[in-house]
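Our consortium's second objective concerns turning raw sequence data into structural hypotheses that experimental partners can test. To show how far this objective has progressed, the report includes one record in full. It was chosen at random from the queue rather than selected for favorable results. The single chain below, 88 residues long, was entered without modification.
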Amino acid sequence: MGYPETPPERLSNDPTHPDYHPCLVRVGIRFDGSVRSDVCRYDIKRGLIVIRSGKMHFGEVEPFWRWDESRQERRARERFDQTRGARA
């Protein structure tokens, strides 16, 4: 089945955060027109990104898929979704 056409509206790379999902490594973030590689969390509705240093930035957030997932990554994601519940 794979990922949906667009990434989730909110995502975090912190396993204790409610918006955590392991697919964040597959999501690229374009913030105010430039691609950022230091994003730890984002929220499209609020126009918010949190970078590694913990600073918050507000602006236009546009997530995109970086590449197709491998079979191993897909199986790991499906196992994660079954145990924790799918996040969309």
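The partners drew two points from this record. Helices lie at 71-84. The chain has a mean pLDDT of 83. Both points have been shared with the crystallography group to help prioritize constructs.
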